[in-house]
Design goal:
The complex is a heterodimer of chains A (323) and B (419).
Chain A lengths: L2 E6 L5 H12 L5 E6 L5 H5 L10 E6 L3 E7 L2 H13 L2 H10 L1 H8 L3 H15 L1 E2 L2 E2 L3 E5 L3 H17 L4 H13 L4 E7 L3 H16 L4 E9 L6 H8 L5 H10 L5 H30 L5 E5 L7 H20 L1
Parallel strand pairs in A: 1-7, 1-8, 2-4, 2-7, 8-9, 9-10
Antiparallel strand pairs in A: 3-4, 5-6
Helix pairs in contact in A: 1-13, 3-4, 3-6, 6-7, 6-8, 7-8, 7-9, 10-12, 11-12
Chain B lengths: L30 H6 L5 E5 L6 H14 L3 E6 L4 H6 L10 E3 L12 E6 L2 H11 L3 H9 L1 H9 L3 H16 L4 E5 L8 H14 L1 H12 L6 H14 L1 H14 L5 H12 L5 E7 L3 H17 L3 E9 L9 H14 L4 H31 L5 E5 L8 H12 L21
Parallel strand pairs in B: 1-5, 1-6, 2-4, 2-5, 6-7, 7-8
Antiparallel strand pairs in B: 3-4
The chains are: A alpha/beta (323), B alpha/beta (419).
InterPro entries (chain B): ArsA/GET3_ATPase-like (IPR025723), ATPase_ArsA/GET3 (IPR016300), P-loop_NTPase (IPR027417)
Protein name (chain B): Anion-transporting ATPase, ArsA/GET3 family
Pfam families (chain B): ArsA_ATPase
Chain lengths: 323, 419
């Protein structure tokens, strides 16, 4: 697997997961490119580096001399690149930008922006140096689930719209890479109704569009704090302050029935939330895709926590390869 | 590491011990008065994706209807179950009356209508309204128009704005609550109409039309180059489709810009209020910050920030540290139920830590925007997907301040630090 596309509903943490996946794939001396497509500079924030230019920059080093480079793709720059590469028109392109023509061109053709982005991704995946691929893997922090099929399928749409010309040729090449077995589209979800629903919808859309679906990554999963019997009792709403008061009193904890009641209320909410999440695990299983759970990290996300998540993903990737 | 040679310690005057600084306190937000006020005609809920804009819009609309107003809520992309509970089973791009059970019993005279935006249909309607039937047919069948109306980035925002203008012009409702499209950036909603009208009305598209009007003689050299590049990249066919579309659209020019400007102005008129929605997370609050700055730059009225899905503890009598300590003591004392009680104390400790983190983020927002009113809405145990859920969220949004179980004002997650 060379190209990993990471999508998910907004707020599920797909940028974090994409970054952790890039670290996991870069272990043992491999070289990975992490691509940002939405211009939010989320990757720079995660790795605590200055905003990324339109240039491949190293953001992390992994064990065994591996490295993760990051690239924030900018549609305008990609278009200038494209003009330069195919028509030797970079200077003309710059003049056009002054006229607002580039803005216009990326706006006029629906999806031209997405074509430029996916085109750049394809270029990175297939780039070779001295006969071997420059990157062992490319990880894309892609648009959210609601737009993912259109984003990846846009070149197909585009080749219908532009029935001739180099865009058509370019589109066909991009689609060939995206639909090949070396690509996987991973879906990040939370154990919440909406994200799970959107994941299910996205899987059926992607499948219909002939795009290869990879794993479902359950992010921010929590473990119950309570013992199983207490958890079940509280989830049914049967736990009261009276169940807790004697043990609290035995430890000479002041606060009386009021404290016990408040604790029971918090425990009930905790248990009910957990029960709700656990029920959604069944729905995630029913999607019949490989599933990996990443734990909820407390505190701000830093490189250390990213490596922790990466270790979980590495384990998952290994079992997937073995299976 | 070796220690650098230390300079001789010099005598400094003793400093007074640091006084605990009071946390910033945001002004409370009175949404109850806002939605009940007959002067309030439009409420726009905006914020980053996934923060609960749709639910907030629907909850506010329901609360306003129950306060006696005739309300329509324009939703963009509601969750399936929420849509069903609002009776939005089909996308017909027209408001439908929502049956509020128990509405009659409370003697409420208000009405709730709800609709889901169909952007393609809204666009088609504009085309039909602004051209002759034959022209409209030409436009609707143009492949470039079809792509533009269903997938142009910003079409959804533009059409939401357009629909808002239509609803307002119909004078059928005395309050319109608008949910904004789930875009990457909350600002897209404000920028899209202008981008769209600039695009449809702009120099470039006029130049593209020039060949069909007056031949190439007026076209500049720059344009010829541009045209050459466009046909190189996109192929001649697309360029012809665009030209045909633009020619057919000729009659509508000016109309687009006028409409977009009119709706944009509507948002600045008295009677319009913006409610910014965020969750207590860094990204969502950063987005909310941008939006607040933008609204103030544009002179658009901000009602305040709804901080959605907070986790206030049921008691603040026991700090996280003390709760963790107490959990150990309870286990040591043993006896029946000790394990459960210790777990309950650990649940509380986690809850206190989470609430402290959320309060910290809210405080940072308030430090940067001290004038912005804040209302917190605790996370319900599950997702809101029925009228009862909307009603209880509405109560959280509009209920009186300061009556939470812990006595904490609703502008905060935790009680304010004392001076």
């Amino acid at each position: 697997m060379r190209l990993h596309v990471v999508t998910g509903k907004g707020g599920t943490g797909k940028t974090t997961v994409a970054a952790a996946l890039a670290l996991a794939l870069a272990a043992d001396g491999r070289s990975v490119l992490l691509v940002e497509t939405e211009g939010r500079q989320g990757i720079a924030q995660l790795f605590d580096t200055p905003p990324l230019p339109y240039e491949e920059r190293r953001v992390a080093v992994t064990r065994g001399g591996g490295e993760v480079k990051a690239l924030a793709i900018d549609a305008e720059e990609a278009l200038l690149d494209y003009l330069d590469m195919f028509y030797n028109l970079r200077r003309a392109g710059r003049a056009l930008r002054k006229m607002g023509a580039i803005d216009f061109a990326t706006a006029i053709a629906p999806g031209l922006r997405d074509v430029l982005l996916t085109g750049k991704i394809k270029e990175a995946v297939t780039r070779r140096h001295d006969g071997r691929p420059v990157y062992d893997a490319v990880v894309v922090d892609a648009p959210p689930t609601g737009r993912i099929t259109r984003f990846l399928g846009v070149t197909a749409e585009m080749s219908q719209l532009a029935r001739s010309g180099p865009i058509k040729t370019q589109s066909d090449g991009v689609m060939a890479v995206l639909r090949s077995p070396q690509t996987a589209v991973h879906l990040v979800t939370l154990l919440e109704d909406m994200p799970v629903q959107e994941t299910a919808d996205a899987i059926s859309e992607l499948t219909k569009a002939d795009l290869p679906v990879g794993s479902v990554i359950v992010n921010m999963a929590t473990e119950p704090v309570l013992p199983a019997d207490g958890l079940a009792l509280a989830a049914r709403g049967r736990l009261t302050g009276e169940d807790l008061a004697p043990a609290l009193a035995a430890a000479h904890l002041h606060g009386g029935p009021e404290l016990a009641g408040a604790l029971a209320a918090e425990v009930t909410e905790h248990a009910q939330r957990w029960a709700g999440q656990d029920a959604l695990r069944d729905e995630v299983e029913a999607l019949s895709r490989p599933v990996v759970e990443l734990p909820l990290m407390t505190g701000p996300m830093d490189l250390g926590s990213l490596f922790e998540l990466a270790a979980r993903l590495e384990e998952h990737l290994q079992t997937e390869v073995a299976a | 590491m070796t220690a650098a040679p230390q300079p001789e310690p010099t005598q400094r005057p003793a400093r007074a011990p640091r006084q605990p600084r009071p946390g910033p306190v945001a002004p409370p937000m009175d949404l109850d008065a806002l939605i009940a006020d007959p002067e309030t005609r439009i409420v726009v809920c905006c914020g980053a994706g996934g923060v609960g804009k749709t639910t907030t819009s629907a909850a506010l609309a329901l609360a306003a209807a129950e306060a006696g107003r005739t309300v329509v809520v324009l939703t963009i992309d509601p969750a399936r179950r929420l849509a069903q509970s609002l009776g939005l089973v089909e996308l017909d791009n027209e408001p439908r009356r929502v049956d509020i059970p128990g509405g009659a019993a409370t003697g409420a005279t208000g009405q709730l209508h709800a609709m889901m935006l169909d952007m393609k249909r809204t666009f088609d309607d504009i085309v039909a309204a602004h051209s002759t039937p034959e022209r409209a047919q030409q436009i609707l069948e143009n492949p470039f128009y079809q792509a533009l109306s269903s997938s142009f980035a910003g079409t959804q925002e533009y059409m939401a704005m357009e629909k808002l203008g239509q609803l307002r012009a119909s004078e059928q409702w005395d309050l319109i609550v608008v949910d904004t499209p789930p875009s990457r950036s909350a600002l897209d909603f404000l920028d899209a109409p202008n981008r769209m009208s600039r695009f449809l009305d702009g120099t470039m598209i006029r130049l593209l039309m020039a060949p069909s009007r007056a031949g190439f003689k007026f076209a500049s050299a720059g344009f010829l180059l541009f045209s050459r590049i466009v046909s190189k990249i996109l192929g001649g066919q697309l360029l012809r489709d665009i030209s045909a579309f633009v020619a057919a659209l000729d009659t509508m020019f000016g109309g687009f810009r006028e409409r977009a400007t009119a709706t944009y102005e509507l948002l600045r008129r008295p009677g319009t209020w913006f409610v910014v929605v965020a969750t207590p997370e860094p990204d969502a609050l950063r987005e909310a910050s941008y939006f607040v700055d933008r609204l103030s730059a544009e002179g658009m009225p901000l009602a305040g920030l709804v901080l959605n899905r907070t986790h206030p503890p049921a008691t603040t009598a026991l700090s996280a540290t003390r709760a963790d300590g107490a959990a150990e003591e309870v286990l040591e004392a043993g006896g029946p139920g000790a394990e459960l009680a210790a777990a309950a104390l650990r649940v509380h400790a986690e809850r206190m830590q989470l609430a402290a983190r959320e309060q910290h983020l809210a405080d940072r927002f308030t430090s940067a925007h001290p004038e912005v009113a804040v209302r917190t809405v605790p996370a319900a145990a599950g997702d809101v997907h029925d009228l009862d859920g909307l009603r209880s969220m509405g109560e959280e949004l509009t209920g009186p301040d300061g009556d939470t179980p812990t006595g904490t004002p609703r502008s905060r997650v935790l009680p304010a630090r004392r001076r």
